[in-house]
Design goal:
Layout (H helix, E strand, L loop, with lengths): L13 H11 L4 E2 H8 L3 H13 L3 E8 L2 E8 L1 H19 L2
Antiparallel strand pairs: 1-3, 2-3
Protein name: Helix-turn-helix domain protein
Organism: Flavobacterium succinicans
Amino acid sequence: MGIIDKLNKDFESRVRLGIMSILMVNDWVDFTEMKSLLDITDGNLASHSSALEKVEYIEVKKEFVGKKPKTSYRVTNKGRVAFEQHLKSLEKLLKTK
């Protein structure tokens, strides 16, 4: 198995990489803030966050604030471990001669 095989396919998308990067350094991030930070559409954020939730890398919390719906995200322990392993594999790949 080569170094490239150790890269996690769940993080190949730049949007998913961005979501995970933001969540690794923040506790909860709401939909509006995440969308603004990544400069992406509602649909893009919804589909990529759904994919990360499906593999249990992020937790999605939906609630109402007043009468308005609010969606927030945070990284799970499983997601944190998987993303750290992905970053280590990237670092190894960059150091390969």
